[in-house]
Amino acid sequence: MADLLSRPNPPAYIKFLAATGAERLLTAALRIGGHAIGTAHFVVENGVQFEVKSSLLKGVCSQLAVAISNILTIENNYERQIEKSKLLDFSNAIAAIHDKMQFLKLLNTKLRELFRFSHAMIACINDDKKSCITFILDPQEKDPEEWEYNQVIIENVPLKNSAFEMVSSGFVLVDLNEFVNTGLAPDFIRRNYDGGSLEMLIAPLKEDNRIIGFFMLFSREREWLDNNQLNILSGVTHQLSIAAANIVANEKIQKQLTEINNYKQRLEQENYYLQQEIKINHNHSEIIGSSPAIKSVLTLVEQVAPSESTVLILGETGTGKELIARAIHNSSPRKKELMIKINCAALPASLIESELFGHERGSFTGAIDRRIGKFELADKSTLFLDEIGELSPELQVKLLRALQEKEIERIGGKTTIKIDVRIIAATNRDLEQMITDGRFRLDLYYRLHIFPIMLPPLRDRKEDIPILSSHFVSRYAKKAGKIIHALNAKALKELIGYDWPGNIRELEHVIERSVLLTNTETIHTVYLPAVKTVFDNNKNEQPSVIQTLQEQEKDYILKILKKVNGRISGPGGAAELLGLPASTLNSKLKKLGIHREHRG
C-alpha cells in the first residue's frame, strides 16, 4: 500500500483502504475468453502468507469473472430493453405530432427520458438557404433574468462561419467555452453560455439527404453523453427530422389554405359587390357638360388621376361626386382593379366599422363568420368614402390611423393587415365649420384635404342643362320603351329657369317622371316641384312659401288640368296623366275644392 500511495494521484479507494489500516493489497485480473473485464482486489492481513500464483486464486477469479460477466450481460440486456421500450415509445409519440406545441411537449417529456440535458432547440433553414431561424424553443431555455428571450426567437443566424457549418453528415459536440472565445458564436449561443451552458450537441435534420434544419441539446454539465446515447441519438435525429419536415409542410399547407380561404372570401365579397353595382344603374362612361365650371373640374381630374394622392370631393347633394370619383379612378394606374365605395351615412357607426375594417368570427354578437372589410377589398385599388362628414369621432380616429400607418386590424383580430389603398373622399358638409364645432378632426381633415375638388351646383352651370336633359330623355325613354326625341322650347326654358336645389339628381328624376307621363315624341310639359326654393350662393335659405301637402297636391292637379284644358277623362286627359281612374280624380277634385271654373 505504501508503494501505491507514493505514486502520483493515487485512486480514492487506495486512500480509503490505507486509512482503514490495510498495508498489503492483492489485485488479480478477471478475464473471460482471454479478455479482461475487470479486477478483483484482496486486502491481505499482516503476517499472512499468500500464494499469488496458486490455482485456488485462479479458480476464484475465474468464477468471479463468469459471475460478473453474467451480471453485466443481464444488466446490459435490461438497459437495452428499457432503451428499446423508450425508443419505441418515442417513435409512437413522434408519429402523432402535428404541430409545434406537440413537438415541444415531446422534447420536454419523452426526449428527457433518453438524454440528460438542460434545454433543447430546433432551428430551420430559411428559404434563402443562407440563414436559419428558431423553429422550436424549449421553455426551459426562457430565463428573463439572464437574457432577452424574445430576441432569440426572431434572430436570423447566418449558416456561414457558424456552428451550423460544422455539421454535415453527423452530430458535433461543441465546447461552448472554446467556441465563444473564437468570436464566431452567434448571439443565441453566447447567451446560452452566459446562462450556464457548457456544451452543445448539434445534429442536422435532413429530408431526402438535404439539411432542412438543426437539432440542439444544451447541457450545464460535461461528459453528459455516453457512447450508447450517441448511438441512440442518430436514430432520434432521423425521427425528429421527419417530424420537423412534416410540421413545416403542414404549416405551409395551412398558410396556403388560409390564403386560399381569404382569397375566396375576397372573391365572394367582390362578386357580391359587383352584383350590387350592376343592380344600380350607372352610366358613368362620360361626364356630360361643356360649361367652364365643369371643364375646370375635368382639368383637375386629369391632373390628379395619375398620382397616388388623396382626393377630397366637395359639393352639394346630387352634383355627381361619385361620378367624379369614378373618373379619377378610371384614369389612374389602379383602373384595372374594382373601385370600392362605402356610404358613411348609410349605416350606424358599429356597422360602418365592420364594413370598413372587417371582423373576425365571434368578435361580436352576430359575427358568425369572418368578414373582409372594404379596406381589404380595395387593396391595390381605390376606396371611395362617400359622406365622409358623417363618420363618428371614434371612427375618424381609426380611419386616420389606417391612413397614416397603411395598415388595419379587423374587429376582434390580433394581427395587423398591410393595405395599399388610394382614398377618394366626398362630402356635402362644411368640414371647416365641423372642425370649429368639434365634430370633425383637424388632423384627419389635413390627411383628406390634399387635393380638394369643388363641384359646382347645377344652378351655376345652367348652360349644361339642355345636354343633360337630352341625355336623361334618351336613357329613360329607352328604359320605358318609348320613342321620345326631345323637349320643346317651353319645357327647356322651365328647366333652365328652375334653381335645382337637388342639382343633377333632381333634374334626372324630373326628366324620368316627365318621360313616363309623356305620350308624344316631344316632351311638352316638365313636372317641376310646386314650391321653388331660391338658393343663395353662400347659404341655403328657407323656402319663401311653405305649403301643406294638400295644398301642393291641389296646385299640381290644377296645373295638369290647365295643360289639358280641363279635360278629365279620355286619351291625354288629366286622369290618364295622373294615373288615376276618372271617378277617383272627380272625387279628389271635389275633396280639394276644385270646381269647373278653376280648371282652365
What does this entry look like structurally?
With 600 residues, the protein is an alpha/beta fold. It folds into 5 domains: 74 residues, no CATH class; 148 residues, GAF domain (Beta-Lactamase); 171 residues, Rossmann fold (3-Layer(aba) Sandwich); 63 residues, Helicase, Ruva Protein, domain 3 (Orthogonal Bundle); 44 residues. It is built from 22 helices and 17 strands. Strands 5-4-3-8-7-6 form a 6-stranded antiparallel sheet. Strands 10-11-14-9-15 form a 5-stranded parallel sheet. The N and C termini lie far apart (149 Å). About 4% of the residues have low confidence. Keywords: ATP-binding, Nucleotide-binding, Transcription, Transcription regulation. One of its GO terms (molecular function) is sequence-specific DNA binding. InterPro entries: AAA+_ATPase, AAA_lid_NorR, GAF-like_dom_sf, Homeodomain-like_sf, HTH_Fis, P-loop_NTPase, Sigma_54_int, Sigma_54_int_dom_ATP-bd_1.
